[in-house]
Amino acid sequence: MYWYQVFQDGPEYEARKKKGTFTPPNLSMKDLHDAVPRHLFQRSTTKSICYVLRHLMITYVFYLSATGIDDLTVLIGNHSHNMIRTIVRSALWISYWGWQGIMFAGIWCLAHEAGHDALSPYRFVNTALGIFLHTAVLTPYFAWRATHHTHHKSTNNIERDETYIPPTRKDFKLPDGKVAVRMDYAEVLEETPAFTLFKLAVRQFLGFQLYLIHNRKGNPRYPAGTSHYKPSSLLFKPKHRPSIILSNIAIITMILILGTYGYRCGWSSLWAYYIMPWLFAHNWMVMFTYLQHSDPTIPYYRKDQWTFARGALATVDRPLFGWVGRFFLYGISADHVAHHFFVSIPFYNLPEVTEAIKPVLGECYNYDSTPVLYALWRSFTQCTFVEDEGGVLFFKNQYGEAVMQPLTLGL
């Protein structure tokens, strides 16, 4: 890849965009299930635990390596200019935060697998692994699992999905699309690139926790005060409440552990070794979860047009970070279409599942090799709003323009 291709759309995206029209698919679920060999559904507790232990070991090695950064830079400082020492020290710490952030995101991905009972055929093993791993990165396991299951049952259903719900024309108080002109949109939606970048940074590093705390960017059907930490929240059914309380106790325990570490080892150590990687992990997590379903060429549906298969197909597979995404993030972006159809198949079998179902999906399979940072900027700046009416909806940009249109009349 040439350097300038980092800022270009992938050929798969260009092909969908060039097509310009979209007919909602009517997929045979039987054909899809028949295409997947039965052995791929098998889950191995031993294999999954080995993956978990390997991941935790590498995470610990990164931590141990970081404990030597300051000593190394002091040694460098004895033989070079202070500016060089500062540059080297900053580069090493940023590198640690970024890579350890990927490791923390990988811990979150393994807990995500546990939440789908995909690590083991035994529910108690999945629960134990899930609550340990998610709590380690300050995610309430049972609360997030409950809303994530709702997401899978309602993917890209604008009325029922849980997060990244598109705002509508009415939300922005835009004039009717039949009379609005480019200037009307610009007056309401246009902003400077610097401010857009600031909003993107806030969402990337803080957005997931804000979603958990007060449903930021969650479905607007929920009332003010909605929170993943509130057992009585309408996010949950009454049967979920005891487990939500258990999640909260686990999170409080983890915060106390971190506080004890900070008190004994220094708050700067807590910040450097845990908090900063944790923030970087949120950046990676928000990046891949947002790009899985938010794209100018991917539809949302209202209830009269939504089906489970259509929602599952409103998903984009991306080769996120190449081998790094495969090895450390367990292919969470590379095989996300297959995951939406077969949630309990373990991640290590999903590449084969993806290849098995591609012939059945045909043109319905969405793949995009656009470099991830450019894809993130493209979606963040072009996926601005959807219309208030219609059964099949595509994002419009800040000038009221969409790259795709539903083909079937009445949609």
UniProtKB/TrEMBL annotation:
Q: Which GO terms describe its biological process?
A: lipid metabolic process
Q: Which UniProt keywords apply?
A: Membrane, Transmembrane, Transmembrane helix
What GO MF terms are annotated?
A: oxidoreductase activity
Asked if the keyword Magnesium belongs to this entry, the reply reads: no
Which CDD domains does the entry link to? Delta12-FADS-like
Q: Does the keyword Iron feature in the UniProt annotation?
A: no
The superkingdom listed in its UniProt entry is Eukaryota
Give all residue intervals belonging to the Fatty acid desaturase domain. 93-365
Ranges that cross the membrane: 91-111, 123-144, 244-264, 270-291
> What name does this protein carry?
Fatty acid desaturase-domain-containing protein
